[in-house]
Amino acid sequence: MVYMDMRERHLEGFSETLLRCNHLYRPNSDSIALLNTVNSRRKIEIFDYGRSADAFTRAFGMRNSLKCLRALTSLGAAIRRYETVCDLGCGSGAFSLAFAYLADNPDLKLQGLDASETQLRLAGELMSAAGLPGSFAFERRNLPAQIGYLPDLTISSYWFCENEHVIADPVLFDLMAGREMLIVDYEKIIDRIAACLPRGFQVLARHSALVEIPSVLTDFVAQEWASVYGLHISRTAG
Ligand SMILES: C[S@@+](CC[C@H](N)C(=O)[O-])C[C@H]1O[C@@H](n2cnc3c(N)ncnc32)[C@H](O)[C@@H]1O
């Protein structure tokens, strides 16, 4: 019960943060067309972010961020332990925003990596508008690639579905993972990652949940509920 209240409080506060960024999320004709196309195809989409990053953000940014928030609540108060965080395929910053909101940690150093300049620009604008504590850097990188340090936590939403070859390649997977990794993705991708986990990694938790979209956000998120699938893994000691 107390846990539910906490979750509802987070959702309320996070909705205010999302609304501070409403200029990036307000639907337009391009985003509505994109949403309709995706809904009619009912398959995993790989977008052309060079052309449609802005429409993608307006169509899916808020919804993805709410799903990431829900997955992150499973970390509880321990979220403040993670000071170096890397967001793989950060896109326009959905997971970064949710992480920074929940962590509420001035010592947080969060780096977002993505191949799309437009997505990275939107992520930077989003974090400036949100005004959350921590330091944030969004950098262009074609992944998988050396990151140069081992983050306390790697977060990634809907990146593995566009890079399925990494799931089956232990060397590439190892390159992408921090000490721990929290992944949000389609159910079948989460299943596949859990089934293919290389030696040296363990599952800490798996989640699936329905997120109720707060009524103050219904102008932005064209659905009442969204399902989220997540996987939390860590490196094993030794
Ligand atoms: C479906 S979007 C998800 C964005 C964000 N994480 C979210 O949940 O809204 C996937 C993102 O991954 C990026 N991406 C896909 N493959 C990539 C690669 N190989 N290297 C770097 N970025 C990549 C795309 O540019 C895009 O921004």
Can I get a quick summary?
It is built from nine helices and seven strands.
* Class computed from helices, strands and strand pairing: alpha/beta
Taking pLDDT < 50 over at least 5 consecutive residues as the criterion, the unreliable ranges are none
**Widest sheet: strand order?**
3-2-1-4-5-7-6
Ions, cofactors and other ligands present here are: S-adenosylmethionine
CATH architecture: 3-Layer(aba) Sandwich
Description of the structure:
The protein has 238 residues and is an alpha/beta fold. It has nine helices and seven strands, in the order ααααβαβαββααβαββ. It is globular. The model has no long low-confidence stretch (mean pLDDT 94). S-adenosylmethionine binds next to helix 4 and helix 5.
